[in-house]
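Record type: monomer structure entry
Structure origin: computed from sequence
Chain ID: A
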Amino acid sequence: MTIVRSRKIKMLAAVLLVFAIVAGVSTTMNKKVEAACSHSFYVQVPTVYPTCTSTGSAVRVCADCGYAWSVTLPKTAHNYVRVTVCSPASCTRTGTEYCRCSYCSATCYRTIPATGHQLYSVYRNGHTEWYCAICNQRFS
């Protein structure tokens, strides 16, 4: 139980140290403790959030020794949202839609998969006939 409490206290201290660094407060580190630490248990706080057009950055603070370092966060993927359907998909043909990124307005065209036939049966004159509910094509 002491280890868990100690770990929580260290984590809280690391979070406070991150906010101090982000706010521009000068901090001093114990270099002897830092050199012996593996920095495997740390807190990360983004300072600049990444977007689809630029990388971000974050500050990581070791919860054990207080060592702080900066890391680069990779760009995110575009968040494409459908703007309009250029050609609708049918049972047998693919369609096309025009999309735009909600963050940077980059555009693209995406393929809409074919819907496939949705069959239903009709029993007439002693045999079953199959039809597509979408395109009304008859299948024997």
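Annotation 1: Residues 80-139 form one domain.
Annotation 2: The mean pLDDT is 80.
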